[in-house]
């Protein structure tokens, strides 16, 4: 229909979920697009690099599996619902599962003491 009406269509949004899987709507848009341009809107990883991935955290730990949609305010009868959050990361930190809070925790550990001769 857009071709017949000679309309340009512009779409903005994130392409993938926290598992790095394309959203179905995003996948179809990419399949049909004449052009795909990545716009950087100052989304930065905690390290200062360009943020390209979305990370989901549950109780502070990054997860890469699970339901795409999570309702965090519904209590389970067996156990309390996890605290769910999202964070943007660069590709390297997403692959290493290194969120800002985890990086701070590792930094606090510090270097081991050197062995004395």
Structure description:
The chain is of the alpha+beta class and 117 residues long. The protein has one domain. The protein is 25% helix and 13% strand. The protein has four helices and three strands, in the order ααβββαα. It has a three-stranded antiparallel sheet with strand order 2-1-3. A hairpin with a 2-residue loop joins strand 1 and strand 2. The longest helix has 10 residues, at 100-109.
Key structural traits:
flat; alpha+beta; 117 residues; 25% helix
Mean pLDDT comes to: 84
Report the sheet-strand fraction.
Answer: 5-15%
Shape descriptor reads flat
Provide the succession of SSEs.
HHEEEHH
Show unreliable segments: none
Overall radius of gyration: 20 Å
* Span of the ends, CA to CA: 78 Å
Structural class by sheet pairing and helices: alpha+beta
Number of separate structural domains: 1
Number of distinct beta strands: 3
| Sheet with the most strands: spatial strand order | 2-1-3
Give the biggest beta sheet. 3 strands, antiparallel
How many DSSP H or I helices?
4
Proportion in helices: 10-25%
